[in-house]
Design brief:
Blueprint: E1 8-12, H1 19-29, E2 35-38, E3 60-63, H2 64-67, E4 80-83, H3 85-94, E5 97-101
Parallel strand pairs: 1-2, 1-5, 2-3, 3-4
């Protein structure tokens, strides 16, 4: 949960082909209390090793409603977690700001 007034909820929705630039930009603004959720087309890149660099303090979320369309495994690697609609809504209301990466 949010532990800082400076924390940001990052919503990554861009297709994996666009990640090289987006992830570099995201890493420049990333802070230790930030949270990342993969949504929409971004969930196709759930196995990308570049994501582990952002999972140092919190697991990276995968929006469960979108993940169901891909039939991802029940057990995800340790640095990933499914995020239900209820949890996503809680985070949207709890984080002082959010950024959508397209």
């Amino acid at each position: 949960m949010v532990t800082s007034n400076e924390a940001t909820l990052h919503l990554l929705v861009a297709p994996q082909q666009q990640w090289s630039t987006l992830l570099r930009n995201l890493q420049q603004v990333w802070q230790s209390d930030d949270q990342l959720i993969l949504m929409a087309q971004a969930i196709h890149g759930w196995q990308d090793p570049a994501l582990t660099t952002l999972a140092d303090t919190h697991a990276i979320g995968i929006y469960q409603a979108d993940a169901e369309q891909l039939a991802l495994p029940e057990q995800l690697p340790q640095h990933l977690q499914y995020v239900s609609t209820a949890l996503w809504a809680t985070w949207v209301l709890s984080f002082p700001r959010s950024i959508t990466w397209r």
